[in-house]
Amino acid sequence: MALNFSVFKVRAMSAIVFAVLMIAGLVWNQWTFFALFTIIQFGCLYEYQKLMALIFPSYNSIGSIHKWSLLVLGTVMMMVLAPGTLGINGLSIKYIGNYTLYAVLGLMIAFTAFDFIKNKDKGMVLQNLAISFFGLIYIPMCLSLFFQLRAFMVSTFFMDWSFSIPLLVIASIWVNDTMAYIVGSFIGRTPLSSISPNKTWEGTIAGIALSVLLVTKVLGIWIPIQEKYIFIISITASIAGTFGDLFESKLKRLAGVKDSGTMMPGHGGFLDRFDSILFAVPFVWLILQILF
Prior knowledge:
Mean pLDDT: 87
Strand content: under 5%
Number of strands: 4
Helix content: over 70%
Largest sheet: 2 strands, antiparallel
Distance between the termini: 43 Å
Radius of gyration: 20 Å
Low-confidence stretches: none
Number of domains: 1
Strand order of the largest sheet: 1-2
Order of helices and strands: HHHEEHHHEEHHH
């Protein structure tokens, strides 16, 4: 697979803008951190619904109440799982989310029950509900673990380092994706999987190796985490992220589309950009729970 320089230029330019916005959201404060991943989950969940409607024609039959309740429910889940310290005038986002969750969930259950009673195809209604439930686990539940990863690091007298582990995860994914694309374009010969024909074993292995090396040695210089833990975080994120990419590629193949959306020129939609992260975050969180 030869490197297409025009495509690479578009990807590089949009990636720079994207990186600036992401880093600003990550490091500015806990509000921008919360807003960043809440927006990401909304975009991912919206595109997930579109893909599911293409894969499962019956999912097209869900009404507007089901569709929008799911999107609101994803946002409310982010509020419920947000840090208890995040609030307005002493009223925490978590507290607001808890009460809103019951209202939205109740509305969605009531609508589904009504649909179940009037619809002759009971299996279709249950299938649509299962698809929506999986979407909540796959996207907002996974992304909300960033809040817990942020809590692993505490503030010091000189600086708030709470963004460190989320930054390591995202940096590992970015470097892995970029290096896998470049190396695979030049020397890639062996297809990694029929799910994603453009990915090669050469690019995948090089992407993971270079990601671990660069993140561990470069970010390890200034982030106050022992190098061995940065190594563990980076290799876990890179490997899990590769499977996340393949999983979303499978969904797109089943749906018969090239990209999940058009959010980012040269990169596709929200799911295209964050598919790796959706798998990486739970595994990094699990590894850290085991270690600490």
